[in-house]
Amino acid sequence: MPSRPDTTTAHARPPFTDRAACTDTIRIDPEDFFPNSGTPARALAYCRTRCTVRDECLTWALATDQRHGVWGGTTANQRAALRRG
């Protein structure tokens, strides 16, 4: 995994997002990454098979304590489990 990101800019747009698969709104609806209920299966599959910045994204999500949505090919529950070790 890459080094820890600068968390002082946690609310700024992460630098890797210009290369992220989730920004391809022609192929996937951004709302799929933040569903109101259920598992974001479509977003997870899309991210896990097409995103080239998954590691950077996951590192950023863990460092900035993202508790909602799909980040780095993981759900909020999966990230919580990773934080617990």
Describe this structure in words.
The protein is an all-alpha fold. The protein has one domain. Helices cover 34% and strands 0% of the residues. The chain is built from three helices and no strands. It is globular and about 35 Å long. 21% of the residues are buried.
Give the fraction of residues assigned to helices: 25-40%
Gross morphology: globular
Order of helix and strand elements from N to C terminus = HHH
Beta-sheet strand percentage? under 5%
The total beta strand count reads 0
Secondary structural class: mainly alpha
Please give the largest β-sheet: none
Query: How many domain units?
Result: 1
Report low-confidence residues grouped into runs of 5 or more: none
Number of helices: 3
Gyration radius (Cα, Å) is 12 Å
| Mean pLDDT, all residues | 84
Considering the chains and any ligands shown, give keywords for the structure.
globular, mainly alpha, 85 residues
In short:
This protein has 85 residues and is mainly α.
Q: How are the SSEs ordered, and which strands pair?
A:
Blueprint: H1 41-50, H2 54-63, H3 76-84
